[in-house]
Amino acid sequence: MAETTTATTPEAPDVPEGGVPEREVVDPAAWTCPAPLRDHPTVVLGHGGGGALSAELMEHLFVPAYGNPTLAGLGDSATVTLGGARLAFSTDSYVVRPLFFPGGCIGDLAVNGTVNDLAMSGAQPAYLSCGFILEEGVELSVVGQVAQAVGAAAEAAGVTVATGDTKVVEAGHGDGVYLNTSGIGLIPDGVDIRPQRAVPGDVVIVSGPIGLHGIAVLSLREGLEFGAGELASDTAPLNGLVAAMLGVTRDVHVLRDPTRGGVAATLNEIASASGTGVVLTERDLPVPEAVANACGFLGLDPLYVANEGRLVAVVPRAEADAVLAALRAHPHGRGAAVIGECVAEHPGTVVARTAFGGTRVVDLPLGEQLPRIC
Amino acid sequence: MAETTTATTPEAPDVPEGGVPEREVVDPAAWTCPAPLRDHPTVVLGHGGGGALSAELMEHLFVPAYGNPTLAGLGDSATVTLGGARLAFSTDSYVVRPLFFPGGCIGDLAVNGTVNDLAMSGAQPAYLSCGFILEEGVELSVVGQVAQAVGAAAEAAGVTVATGDTKVVEAGHGDGVYLNTSGIGLIPDGVDIRPQRAVPGDVVIVSGPIGLHGIAVLSLREGLEFGAGELASDTAPLNGLVAAMLGVTRDVHVLRDPTRGGVAATLNEIASASGTGVVLTERDLPVPEAVANACGFLGLDPLYVANEGRLVAVVPRAEADAVLAALRAHPHGRGAAVIGECVAEHPGTVVARTAFGGTRVVDLPLGEQLPRIC
């Protein structure tokens, strides 16, 4: 498909002898609400970035095609009922490059990612599927290392890999290993955690330092060094952390793991789904020095960098101290901090109070600053 | 990874100045039972073929890594219990080339494939996930057509696409669209359908003509023509057919859809899991003339060619007539036929009575005759 990469600079259409420009048989302009997609007649990397382009693809292409408005819900997983059981169901594909990075590899990333998507609905993750797309010629020892990482991460998270599948594509048509994990978990009675539940007055908490995964992968890929010792992915299963929070209160309004698009994308989705405003205090953001240095050097904003072992919690102010204490008592939540609040002003918009006393709007990113970090 | 394509003819290892050959840090020879894998230090296309190489990868690499012996069960889906509900859970990735072929495309193939894997345990498929790995530069109209096919196939099968994910890889690292579908369904009370349940005396039924999907895709890909009008993929959802069978008897022993590796691989897996012998009668196999012509021309055996809308049923002899009638009364089962029986002789082995009165052993294929047909 390399021949069709003229995503943003399409050539003028051929004009046949009759003088009428040739047209595609399938015309994106005929889709439900074509405007945003018409600007991008071909897929660009940003469509996989978890930002505005991803959201447009979902809204204007997938939801109309599937005829399922509930798919448009912005949760990390779907809530479905089957045989009387209320289940969370989620899927994610992983195309991270390189396959191995400080702090993890595509295998534990894929397990933790789906475990976390399930946990963000309050579910207890139970069973995972694992589908490999292997590239012909990749060493079996590499596949073995990835599979071992899948197994170890599943054991650490307390979930079972119940079913799997392996396909192989010809050399040159992949990147060694692509991985898909899907998962199901049971949502406890009385738990109702979803982005729509944020209300003015709620407190916004993040469970630890942000930006580590994205910067760790980028640094390795581009051969950059920013305080090497500190820079390892934060990939971790968050179901234990969620259980700890639910142990002190069932009244958690929203949980999300800020992966692609970072904390900025997550907060924008919460603001948009709930119709509340969100105000961040920049100086309260737990940004590790190595991440801050790397972001400064590269012109990135840590709010937009992916995390793989952090969660954002929106809780009633009355529960905030108890939730914060529960988070900090858990190994994956030691660095938890209050970073902002939900407000009635500027509904749907995220604003940051800067270190200099001003404010700035924190937009939904268009695509992603760092492609292929998960 | 194009540089590591020396799958079957690896170059001699570099010998550093010290004179000792370099060795991998991770040594496949150290795995649980390394013998079969040591012959294939890198991934070959056959590892994705659903035959002996796939089985070795499962047995010697994935099962030890995941530490989950139940994964080794040969069913198309896992049976798990969650919140008191008995569920089937399955996953499959799809890398078919080309994306569109007579009778379908990667979108409906992916929906029907997972619907069928769930249905083969007797489950009523309910919810699917759909994960896209898109290649930068692929036209959005192509993605839209695939998504429309996903939606239409889900509607036809009576399932809901509940959750999804989209990743994008750089141009040259994919084939336009790779797709993963996972699914969950509810297994009715009193239904116990699995390969281990075949017993001598059971009758083997196939629900219709075999070999159409594999030959249709191959013909298109290679530009061959064999009675073009007839050659379209059989891709179809089989949950309705399974419901029709269960409507006449709950005592169905085994159901499998003979996809990769064809009817031969499916029957070998049933024979191996149950420890019965299987005897086929070649002249009873419903092989369409166009498939027979193509197989003759290409030196293929229709028993090994993939199907995407057929099932193999193993049922007690007393139920065979009723099951056959129920199949034939359904649009997807009109061509159903008895093709063989389970016997006490040659346990674990599949034998075919040839048209000339002899017999031949029908082996588990090593890899796949036709790579990337699903």
TrEMBL record, chains A, B:
Residues 76-187 form the PurM-like N-terminal domain. Residues 1-22 are annotated as: Disordered. Residues 200-350 form the PurM-like C-terminal domain. Residues 1-19 have a biased composition (Low complexity). One of its GO terms (biological process) is protein maturation. InterPro entries: HypE, PurM-like_C_dom, PurM-like_C_sf, PurM-like_N, PurM-like_N_sf. It holds the Pfam family AIRS. Belongs to the HypE family. This is Hydrogenase expression/formation protein HypE. It comes from Streptomyces chumphonensis. The gene is hypE.
